[in-house]
Amino acid sequence: MLTFENVSQHYGSFRALHGVTLNAKEGELVVLLGANGAGKSTIFLTASGLPKATGGSIRFRNQELVGMKPSQIVQQGIVHCPEGRKLFPQMSVLKNLMLGAYVHRRDRAGNQKMLDEVFKLFPILAERREQAAGSLSGGQQQMVAIGRAMMGRPKALLLDEPSLGLAPLVVKQVFEVIQRINRAGTTVLLAEQNAYAALKIAHRAYVIEGGRIVLEGDPASLMNDQAVRKAYIGA
Predict the structure, then answer these.
(1) Helical (H) or strand (E) element with 183
(2) Which positions fall inside the ABC transporter domain (predicted)?
(3) Which of 101, 14, 2, 3 is nearest to 51 (CA)?
(4) How many whole angstroms separate alpha carbon 40 and alpha carbon 191?
(5) N or C: which end of the chain has fewer CB within 10 A?
(6) How far is Cα of residue 128 from the mean position of the Cα atoms in its chain?
(7) DSSP character for 134?
(8) Strand, helix or coil at 131?
């Protein structure tokens, strides 16, 4: 469904991605594990066309994404929920959510239906729809960020570090929602440092270091890999 083949990315003379090859099949929940600076966010930004890849191919349902504008990529069904939430703090929860539906702005009925689905996923957001997004707790802000991404009606959802800075109970709630989204038919590519929580819900996983994919496999095999345990889980 979503395939990266020998993808490279440069920032000036710095090479951030070195021939990355990975894929997420239809309906899969695939986890990308790696430390800060490993290249997880760069993979997602490159998939979103921000900026475009400097080498290789990114295909979605056999459609080449490299060279498309970011808005065109969203229209194809690739929606990116960025690290750090990137909300508009002074705007209401509702307005933040509706910004995610901009590419579908003419379809009011469809947007209302999707908004109802987001409020089912996150009932607290329905209660606080008129509240400024910046006044919410960190966990609730992450819910807004995921909800905004869902308003784009993703076929493939790129979630970048959704557990970052959240309390363990909130992490559990967020990961349960990610599972629900995936089970409803959305392909999910999840970038995470929280390997234990991520591998518990994943179908497959990749490990990235220094802009290179160094391991891939099913969650059980990676859970039992001593290098992965030492780096991301702990003995």
Answers:
(1) helix 168-183
(2) 2-235
(3) 14
(4) 6
(5) C
(6) 24
(7) G
(8) coil
- Rounded percentage of the chain residues whose pLDDT exceeds 70: 98
Which CB contacts under 8 angstroms, 24+ apart, belong to 96-102?
96/133, 96/144, 96/148, 97/125, 97/129, 97/144, 97/147, 97/148, 97/151, 98/151, 99/148, 99/151, 100/147, 100/148, 100/149, 100/150, 100/151, 100/152, 101/151, 101/152, 101/153
Is 0.70 topped by the overall pTM?
yes
pLDDT tens for 33-43 read 988 889 999 99
* Residue bearing tokens 């059980």: 220
Amino acid at 117: E
Residue 82 lies in a domain: no
At 207, list the tokens.
């490990």
Decide if 137 is inside a domain.
yes
Q: Which residue has the tokens 């894929």?
A: 23
In a domain, 83, yes or no: no
Residues spanned by the domain of 105: 88-151
Residue with tokens 């021939």: 19
Do the Cβ atoms of 100 and 151 come closer than 8 Å? yes
Task: Write b or e for each residue in 140-175: b if 16 or more Cβ atoms lie within 10 A of its Cβ, otherwise e.
Answer: bbbbbbbbbbbbbbbbbbbbbbbbeebeeebbebbb
Which of 103, 131, 151 delimits the end of a domain? 151
